[in-house]
Amino acid sequence: MRVLVTGSAGFVGSHVVEALEEAGHDVAGLDLRNGEDVRDGAVLDRMLPGVEAVVHQAAKVGLGVDVADLPDYTSVNAYGTAVLLAAMARHGVSRLVLASSMVVYGEGAYDCPRHGRVRPGPRVAGDLARGLFEPRCPRCGSPMASATIGEDASLDPRNAYATTKLTQEHLAANWARETGGTAVALRYHNVYGPKMPRGTPYSGVAAIFRSALEAGRAPRVFEDGGQRRDFVHVRDVARANLAALSGGAAGALAAYNVASGEPHTVGEMAAALAAERGGPDPVVTGDYRLGDVRHIVASPGRAAEDLGFRARIAFAEGVKEFAGAPLA
Ligand SMILES: Cc1cn([C@H]2C[C@H](O)[C@@H](COP(=O)(O)OP(=O)(O)O[C@H]3O[C@@H](C)[C@H](O)[C@@H](O)[C@H]3O)O2)c(=O)[nH]c1=O
């Protein structure tokens, strides 16, 4: 297939390009680093003729918790996707794979012993400052056990980044309905791996820990380090994109978790990276970021069933490689 990858020079995008080429696809790339803006319809008009599918990775990423960030996130993620979809319609491109994110869920799922499956709201500063990190049942205050989250869970985007990621899904669903196109949204969990951007506020915790260790500093673990995440290796994420190119159904958007199915705590990630690099040992600070979710544990079953995608790189193996791999 002739495939256009947007964000092709980025962390995930560059691995996607490699995976698609290895599978024999004819890949074109578009990236801001090469002066190509997805919001520029004329650029798309030049690149889309002959393209059969678009894999849309270009986005403004990061935490996006500052209201001042809203215009930029909306412009790049929401408006950029709208321009891309309109151009795809003009050129009769009928297949889209979209990089979405687990942030569309907000907090993870929990089981209350009295009320069953619960989706708690944001944790409050007062509780976090007192070290009360685990969300309690909003109805009865009982402690809850974290549970896996599936694609049918209610969506609860809580910041600029999350809101524009969900908007991208809605726009893609609209495009699919109107044009009969096929859209697959991949909700990435915590992606890590070679070429991850060096520790900036915009990169994930694995890169931030890795950068600290490289500089001889101890990784600083927030809360008590018990926050659960699904760390999924970037080459597995690239394979998920490849699988998504032949998934989905005409006229609709299908959304999938892209996850390893093997949750680990943030403390485990810090400890494993520090052990691989020979220290320094992580420091558990008790600090917290307001707006962070406590646990988000993915159910990877639907992607396995519908797309045949199963992550192959286990945590121990992936972290061992990442500890010594190049960062961007
Ligand atoms: C930066 C940092 C985070 N943490 C904790 C906070 C969280 O509980 C946990 C995970 O934090 P983060 O990796 O920042 O991600 P996160 O789990 O909040 O996820 C979000 O993060 C964005 C970077 C991505 O763009 C988003 O798509 C989304 O994945 O690690 C530390 O303990 N130490 C640190 O130095």
TrEMBL record:
| InterPro entries listed in its UniProt record | Epimerase_deHydtase (IPR001509), Lipid_A_modif_metabolic_enz (IPR050177), NAD(P)-bd_dom_sf (IPR036291)
SUPFAM superfamilies with a match to the protein in the record? NAD(P)-binding Rossmann-fold domains (SSF51735)
Query: Is Signal tagged as a keyword?
Result: no
Q: Where is the NAD-dependent epimerase/dehydratase domain?
A: 3-114, 150-259
EC number, as in UniProt: 5.1.3.25
Keyword presence, Membrane: no
Q: Which Gene3D superfamilies match?
A: NAD(P)-binding Rossmann-like Domain
The alphabetical list of record keywords is: Isomerase
One Pfam match:
Epimerase
GO MF annotation terms:
isomerase activity
Q: What is this protein called?
A: dTDP-L-rhamnose 4-epimerase
